[in-house]
Specification:
Chains A, B: Keywords: Aminoacyl-tRNA synthetase, ATP-binding, Cytoplasm, Ligase, Nucleotide-binding, Protein biosynthesis. Chains A, B: Its EC number is 6.1.1.15. Chains A, B: It holds the Pfam family tRNA-synt_2b. Chains A, B: Its main location: cytoplasm. Chains A, B: Homodimer. Two copies of one chain form a homodimer. By secondary structure, chain A is α+β, with helices and mostly antiparallel strands. Chain A folds into three domains: 271 residues, BirA Bifunctional Protein, domain 2, CATH 3.30.930.10; 137 residues, YbaK protein (Alpha-Beta Complex); 92 residues, Rossmann fold, CATH 3.40.50.800. Chain A is 27% helix and 27% strand. The first copy, chain A, has 16 helices and 30 strands. In chain A, the strands form eight sheets. In chain A, strands 3, 7, 8, 9, 10, 11, 12, 20 and 23 form a nine-stranded mixed beta sheet that branches. Chain A has a five-stranded mixed beta sheet with strand order 27-26-28-29-30, sandwiched between helices. In chain A, a hairpin with a 5-residue loop joins strand 11 and strand 12. In chain A, helix 2 packs antiparallel against helix 6. The longest helix of chain A has 21 residues. The first copy, chain A, is globular. Chain A starts with 20 loop residues before the first helix and ends with a helix. Chains A and B meet through strand 1, strand 2, helix 2, strand 3 and strand 4 of A and strand 1, strand 2, helix 2, strand 3 and strand 4 of B.
Chain lengths: 571, 571
């Protein structure tokens, strides 16, 4: 490609509304432009990267034996009604009617469509396992799109869905996909970790996220210092630690006027929050009459509720919803002053986090406005219904596999593999004839990669103050050739053209920067856009028979003979 | 690819709801499945073809110097309001609101989005010309989707938009795109014709459609027997032929009770429809008070109105709309019995087609219910406002270039190139700084290919009673290898595996049909899906050192040595 015929839409200034570095650099490098909130046009510089990412994904998916399909973006609402998600899915699911008034959705995902396809096309166990994938546009009407293409409303996803006669077959394909994802992200040049993930309400026995480690990540990823254990914090189990000591203090009521938060109360009482419990009152599952009970959750004062874990508790409604002021009033409870004492007696289930359950002589609300209790002890002063893992782990916690302690880093989820089980095949009646001639509900897996997000994630991991440092496999161009004073020195342009032709013929993706710009402008653009190799051709070098080479991460350029240069580029 | 791991979703029966052959065969070959009206999922067999078509298009577009971009499917309505099309575009434009109530459309085309991009990114005449293209999903809410992917609601399009400082530059890029389209359709193996097309209300000086000739086509394409002239019938000019003879008959009123159509009247009067005129009363352009006048169009009885031509007349409203019954009553006119006599005197403009204008002694309505007039003559009996080209040409008409006569064939439009001029750049204010430092409104072209439609069009041209006959460049597989009795004869399977490996290594796209099916089933599937080359490996051939080769169009198979086989495949 000749730069003079390409769109260099580079920006010198950092755009105001871009919070994270990848968003800033993608705008500055002229890779994307915002069309509307959460909608981005990919410019030629960005499309080159996107196409390379897609090609690697397609190649590895084909190699894994998955078969490519292509499903519509617009999907009939009726399928979503069959699966139950037309109601369940929140406003991220964009619903609309066509000219005839028939209801449709813009596909945020394709489980329904592929399961509908499978129930029509798959007839016999002999056809299984089968794994279908596509690379297609998705739409999720995010309430607050942000971070550029990292969390946009329209985005490109590689989604795959596999079909099996049993769990063992699913596990086999799942393992193949796990390895395929590792291959893909390795080829994309990403520093990533497969981590255990929550399987949500679907249950199923396995789910892994592929997390790219970067400070701007929206996920907390937990690692063991001593083992391979890695999990999303949503999933990481907080182990029991220690045993409850016997009570030593008497329960005492103290006035704590207007001290509603744990921090306030503990400062006021000059106590450590680790020696306190905090209450979270949430909606329980509605009974047959439609009444929703209130459930009391208690955590140690310094711990954070893990909503996903709470939602897994059979008494707690999902999505997690806090009790209303009216419900608290009815129960004669004052927010900020609630303790576990007497709740079970009032028929309020009390679920205590493991860490809170081993406290003794602790501080809790007194169930009177502006009062707390000190010296509270479980059983003696407060009954509980159940002990449960309710909290997020923190750095230094024991690793759930018993080896080492936990560290926490930020991650960007770029892939997710998931054992769906029979959720969709049951809802949509997707069966095949089994070996015994009887219908058999298929078992499913699903496997996603955020294709557009991968580009942003790669940048979050690879940049410096000059701009992007693309991994060579996905760089918009692999090599840039800059003839010095091309418009005055025909010899350098001639030499540049020859090198351009030679390198292109060898299969390199080369940019010849023949623009009528100062060298400084060209160098800035080439660094900003993250092109891995730069070759400058000047009159001096021509006379000496050398090329000025600089790798994108190098501090200084070096003069290389042609042979040395080609050796360098081959490596 | 091993067939045992592929999805062969072939059907023996022709599906009921598929009218055209490509739709039938794409369903039968397991290339597509209907998800909802006008929405199709592409199965693995179809995606392989689609990907090959896309790759050829992308390669040739890149070669032409166009730059690939990727624009969102969802577009803010505000841009369509700027261009005026939010109101103008009919219900094919799917409009919806997002969760915040902001109006959007599902993009049926991307002129607005690309012009918005260009007005932000293109600053100087030095950057031009620039040609952007994308391969992206489009949505048009067709009132009656049909013919499978030929006229679906969601489809894939390659659309390109070029930007220029002047018409001369546009013409240059237009010519490049014309040649690029020829290259693309040649590589796709299509029998196509570039034909002149109407430029519609946009005006502009040039537009060509690329028409694939096939009986199922929805367009009429007109050719000269003696020259290169080719045009869509919408565009083809009907020349003046002959001169008007002097009147010989007196005007006579005859009773024609209930004879409303030209066919009825002429049969009733035992006259040739060529000796009659028919009236079409349509809406004129509204005046400043908002009143729409009625305009009378007259054509020879055997001719068909060309609506596009009529819409070009400055007095006629577009889209063409017939006068209402109320309007006719007010004017004291009876549908079916309208003649030109006295209309101009009633202030009804009378526009006469060229062929009708040279009639004398003709039959027309008498402007009385159940009466016609014979021996009518222009000027003596009926004034007219203007003579205009209003009709569709018919076979045998003179070619507009004066060379030969016209033939008419059916065509499927697979591509369209169009000189847009400044319609969008003016509406959206897309300017660059010109050489003189002053803002200059850019001139635009646009260039589309219906990517999914191309696949159907290729099939419409290439099939027989056994199924599809794909051009090799876009076949799902180039070669199929069938080991006979593979499950009983390890030797044939072994030989097939070796040949499979060898041909794959040579870069051929090979299917090894290792399915546990009877040879007849395999042969039918391979013929149905249009794979160009079939190689059967049996025990006899193995012993003789030959392979049984059959091209998809061949009547019989031939036994070839390995060298002969490879020669054949190379050719």
């Amino acid at each position: 490609m000749r730069a003079s015929r390409f769109l260099f839409a580079t920006l010198r200034e950092t755009p105001n509304d871009a919070e994270v570095i990848s968003h800033q650099l993608m705008l500055r490098a002229g890779m994307i432009r915002k069309l509307a909130s959460g909608l981005y046009t990919w410019l030629p510089m960005g499309v080159r990267v996107l196409n390379k990412v897609e090609a690697i994904i397609r190649e590895e998916m084909n190699r894994s034996g998955a078969l490519e399909v292509f499903m519509p973006v617009t999907q009939p609402a009726s399928l979503w009604e069959e699966s139950g998600r037309f109601e369940q899915y929140g406003p991220e699911l964009l619903r609309f009617k066509d000219r005839h008034g028939n209801p449709f959705v813009l596909g945020p995902t394709h489980e329904e469509v592929i399961t509908d396809l499978a129930r029509n096309e798959l007839k016999s166990y002999k056809q299984l396992p089968m794994n279908f994938y596509q690379i297609q546009t998705k739409f999720r009407d995010e309430v607050r799109p942000r971070f550029g293409v990292m969390r946009s409303r329209e985005f490109v996803m590689k989604d795959a869905y596999s079909f099996h006669i049993d769990q063992a077959s699913l596990q086999e394909t799942y393992d193949v996909m796990y390895q395929t994802y590792c291959n893909i992200f390795n080829r994309l040049g990403l520093d990533f970790r497969p981590v255990q993930a929550d399987t949500g309400s679907i249950g199923g026995s396995g789910s892994h996220e592929f997390q790219v480690l970067a400070d701007s990540g929206e996920d907390d990823v937990v690692f063991s210092t001593e083992s391979d254990y890695a999990a999303n914090i949503e999933k990481a189990e907080a182990l029991f630690v220690g045993e409850r000591a016997a009570p030593t203090q008497a329960l005492t009521i103290v006035d704590t006027p207007n001290q509603k938060t744990i921090a306030d109360v503990c400062q006021f009482l000059n106590a450590d929050p680790k020696q306190s419990v905090k209450a979270l009152l949430v909606q329980g599952i509605a009974d047959e009459q439609g009444n929703t009970p209130v459930i009391a959750l208690f955590l140690r004062g310094d711990h954070e509720l893990n909503e996903i874990k709470a939602e897994h508790h059979p008494l707690v409604a999902a999505p997690l919803t806090f009790a209303t002021d009216e419900q608290l009033q009815t129960l004669d409870l004052n927010a900020g002053f609630i303790g576990p004492q007497g709740l079970v007696e009032k028929n309020i289930p009390v679920i205590v986090d493991r860490a809170a359950s081993v406290l003794s002589d602790f501080i809790a609300g007194a169930n009177n406005k502006d009062q707390h209790a000190t010296g509270v002890n479980w059983e003696r002063d407060a009954l509980f219904t159940e002990v449960y893992d309710l909290r997020n782990v923190v750095e230094g916690d024991l690793s759930p596999d018993g080896k080492g302690t936990l560290q926490i880093k930020r991650g960007i989820e770029v892939g997710h593999i998931f054992q769906l089980g029979q959720k969709y095949s049951e809802a949509l009646g997707c069966t095949v004839l089994g070996e015994d001639g009887k219908p058999l509900t298929v078992t499913m897996g699903c496997y996603g990669i955020g294709v557009t997000r991968v580009v942003a994630a790669a940048i979050e991991q690879n940049y410096d103050e000059k701009g992007i440092i693309f991994p060579q496999t996905i760089a918009p161009f692999e090599i840039a050739i800059v003839p010095m004073n091309a418009h005055k020195s025909p010899a350098t342009l001639q030499a540049a053209e020859e090198l351009y032709a030679e390198l292109s013929a060898k299969g390199f993706d080369v940019l010849l920067d023949d623009r009528n710009e100062r060298p400084g402008v060209k160098f800035s653009d080439l660094e900003l856009t993250g092109i891995p190799h730069r070759i400058v051709i000047g009159d001096k070098g021509l006379a000496a028979g050398t090329f000025e080479y600089k790798g994108r991460r190098d501090a200084e350029s070096v003069n290389l003979s042609k042979d040395e240069l080609f050796e360098k580029l081959k490596a």
